[in-house]
Design goal:
With 507 residues, this protein is α/β, with parallel strands linked by helices. It has 15 helices and 25 strands. The strands form 4 sheets. Strands 2-1-10-9-11-12-13-14-15-20-19-17-16 form a 13-stranded mixed sheet.
Length: 507
Amino acid sequence: MAARDFSLDTLLRANAAMYAGREATVDGGQRLTWAEFDLRVEALSRWLLAKGIAPGDRVALLLTDGAPYVTTLLACGRIGAIAVLLNWRLAPGEIGWIMGNAEVSMTFANPRFADLLAQSATGELVMVDERHDPQGAFEHMVTADQPPRALPPLDPDRALYMMYTSGTTGRPKGCLQSGTAVATSALAMALRRNWGKETRLLSVNPLFHVVGMQQVAAMLGCGGAMVFAGRDDDSAAILDLLHREQCTTTSAFPTICFPWQAMEPIRNGRMPLVDYTGGAGMRPAIYEFIERDWDARVVGGYGQTEICGFATAIDYPEMLEHPRSIGWPMAHIEMCILDPDGNRLPPGEEGEICLRSPAVMLGYWRNPEATDAALGHGWLRTGDLGTMDERGLGYLLGRAKELIKTGGENVYPAEVDAVFADMPEVADAGCCGVPDRQWGEAVKAFVVLKPGMALTREEITARFKGKIAGYKRPRYIEFVDQLPRDPIGKLLRRELSARPVTPDQAA
């Protein structure tokens, strides 16, 4: 008996049937119901077939977030093409390498990103600028009456999209995710968050990032609405959009939602948000005011591109009770701690966090060595170090590649960061390993002070005494204006470790 197809397209068709007249997307001035959305996906899928795009062909997306992005992704999925989700923060040379590696047949691009394609072979290039040209070529593609075209049988485990990893250890790797994996993750996310057809997502995270994609996919899983912020919207405009559209959930970056405190976030006696999605690397102060001032439930968690987003979840009260915990595995995930030989470790012992799930990636595009390394022993080897307690609660210690080895001892950067989190003068802090002649490596801390606050290196060193072991204390401290973080607030330690160490930074 042939396997039954299950993908994001399955979820879209179900919504078009059950919730035909309900709102599916809000993007600028355009509103689409689920029935209208499905018709546009069908029209575009037929257009792609007419252009010769076949199952397995790669179609690149270099678009701003919005309905055209999701429509193109789903149209690719409907015909078995693989969407290559491009990060518009990359340089032209980086985009060019990815396009060449993926061997794309067609590219959908927003005109504002045209310069990024200067070093790329794009195949046929389709420009999409729906917010500024609502009657443009893309609108014709998704509304034109295209004759149906026969498709060969599609593999239920076919790839839906390819996201390229950040490439911290060399060239980026194309992570292939099946439609089944993405749909499984979407349903699990919606279940864990109790999202349904009344949910309205304020979509702010880029869709080329797995956090943004998982939440949009979850709306396909529950029938909720996707409300897309504009690429040029500032914090005030996004807050206005949240209220205007009565959005009930978001994962807006801290740089967006933290300023809301000074912008009358509660209007007419209410804040529409019911819950907020955060990550394991975000500072507790952000969660505190969301729960306290807005009465919105905060749920954090841990995940990876290779498993379609969040793999664990933890509510804010549990974060307070279990500091540094990443929570429990979600319903579709099995988690364990393995040693380097693939043996499962008992509760409390430190090892590599490993995951098993229908949401695990198919592999890395044309990179069997990296695929074998990541999927060894029948688990996804995350490259993150951690522990689990007797109840299955997970704790993240840090990236294996970020582990600091000083004088034969292991130092997990998160342990050092946690001490800074208790200092009232410190707005942000992070540490990394730096070369040291005597110890091999030493701990260096980067500290951002709150406005008007003062703190010396000597005072910081004094406060570390009695908190953690002496070899874990920072031997160098550099005061900076801000730390390098990615869009969801994750600290980019590799950028810190590349900065020079000078004698005046000695603690």
